[in-house]
Amino acid sequence: MADLAAKDSWVEIRRTVLAPGQRAPQVPDDTQRVPLEMRAKGFLVAPARLGDEAEIVTAAGRCLRGVLSEINPAYGHGFGAPIPELSAIGPEVRAMLRERGRFK
Amino acid sequence: MMDGYESIMAQRADIMRASLGLDYARYRTGVLAFDYERLLADTGYDIDTARRVQRQTAVGDTPLVELVNITELARAVAAPGKGARIFVKDEAANPSGSFKDRRASLSVHEAQKRGYKGIAAATSGNYGAAVASQAAKAGLRCIVVQEAFDSEGIAQPEIAEKTRACEAYGAEVIRLSVGPELFYLLLCVLKETGYFNASLYSPYSILGIETLGYELAQQVQQQVGRFPDVVIATHAGGGNVTGTARGLKKAGAADTRMIAASVDLSGLHMASDHDFNRKSFTTGHTGFSMPFTTWPDRADVPHNAARSLRYMDRFATVTQGEVFYITEVLAELEGLQRGPAGNTSLAAAFIIAQELNQDRVIVVQETEYTGAGKHPLAQLNLAKRLGIDVRRGDPRENRPGTRIVIPEHPSQLAVTDVDLDGVRRSYLRHAIDLLSADDRLSDVDWNFLADETRTSRRYVEDIINESRRKTG
Fold first, then answer.
1. Which of A34, A93, A99 is most worth mutating to test chain B (most B CB atoms within 10 A of its CB)?
2. Which of A42, A60, A77 sits opposite B142 (nearest CB)?
3. How confident is the model over B321-326, as a mean pLDDT?
């Protein structure tokens, strides 16, 4: 089953470190209202399902516990679509250097 | 595994002492004063030693590149005869892709020398990747604690890339939601593991940057025949300005003006969950540079070794849209995809070059690697998704968190100067706040405050006495 992770799978766990209201005194209200959440990755110590309490061994060799949230978590960041407000800048400044005879 | 917040914060001094191996109390010389130079010198890392250590891991000796086309563009919009030559120190050529390798190298070397098993740092930026990279080569374990996502689970794309980079170097990455309790988690990690604390603000971190200023002074000397007239550093916590300026002085470039440049993020709260993903910049902004310039000792060590007010001749801000604009220009006119970080100082350099004669030399002292997440496209796509208005127009209409205005023409770029006298007064107010009514400042303290604010004893005496009279 897709949500069952085998022992030694590379996974992510999550846990709440500080509950709302227990945050550092200096944080603004919007931050005070939400928990301090932690996510960490490592190799699963024993088979577990998504949503189960699980233990991992991290890259530094530490044992951490939390709720199993992802199996083989992907890196989802990228670039996204071109931004039209940036696309014209290159042609504009190259045209200026052509006018000055620097570019052909 | 984790002690409560209050409990750990109460153990802070002991944890920091064990994890840095530095007894800051030894350097106290007055009520406020400490011996800054001795704190740094006692580490044993002079320029030659630092360079020798850094060369073992291919850190430093980065190229100095003249930006001839950007210089030409500045001259196209400058008054006749104006438009200094703009150079950039291509720090992206360091092993993990930024000048932060310089900061990490001496900490990792020190940790290894003193027999620590691992090293840890609280950082969401390039510094984490730098520590992880240096630790990988040294065979040390590494833990990086990041502030990475908001309460909706939306990751800041640039930090997501730093997570990936740290993990690629074999580090454990602890990702947290928004808040200053990042530091609490770091203390928990240090207490549990006994690792070395690669603080960004330790003497090792600052001494590691001196080589940058030293190298660039020598490179300009070799390429142009004299020292640079101006060096501009992107300014956040103060390390970049401090280390670079110290390195310039050590190379003999005593007359080079040091300018600090930050992105203006005024109006956004740095510990706000709501504002976190609306900054569009993760560092080099006023959210760090203002508080750290006006009071450096808010850092995670008792005495911050980054004391930028001692070194800056000028402090200027630029807008978010101006930095995105110059980032495009750098790629399209110079064939260099770099930044975001160094491009804050590049935007400022483009403008300040127009104040100077054409025979002058201005150096942007860093670049960083560009990649997925670390790019204007990633930031502006996120900004649009969160409802921020992105448009071309007059950069003076830029409003952090609400509207990002990309200039329509290079002549629209302008810096806003920060009033350094106001910054100095703010620094002195913070100093006074530490004093109790019966504390008496000695000669050492007065001279220290004059050094800290780069003013005279008379100046600080006048301001402090005036303030104490008012509060009576």
1. A93
2. A60
3. 98
The mean pLDDT value of chain B amounts to 96
Closest CB to A27 among B163, B175, B180: B180
- CA-nearest residue to B176 within chain A is A38
**How many angstroms from the chain centroid is the CA of residue B407?**
26
Beta strands B361-364; B230-234: pairing state: parallel
* A93 DSSP assignment: H
- In angstroms, the separation between the Cα of residue B453 and the nearest Cα of chain A is 27
Q: Which domains does chain A have, with CATH numbers?
A: 4-73 (2.30.30)
The answer to whether the Cβ–Cβ distance between B377 and A80 falls below 8 Å is yes
Q: Does domain B5-53+98-200 match CATH 3.40.50.1100? A: yes
pLDDT tens-place string over residues B250-281: 999 999 999 999 999 999 999 999 999 999 99
Burial of residue B429 (CB within 10 Å: 0-12, 13-18, 19+) is middle
**What CATH number is given for B59-96+204-417 in this structure?**
3.40.50.1100
For the stretch B179-224, pLDDT in tens is: 999 999 999 999 999 999 999 999 999 999 999 999 999 999 999 9
Q: What is the pLDDT of residue B192?
A: 97
Q: What dihedral do alpha carbons A11, A14, A15, A21 form, nearest 10°?
A: 170
Q: Do A58 and B149 touch (CB under 8 A)?
A: no
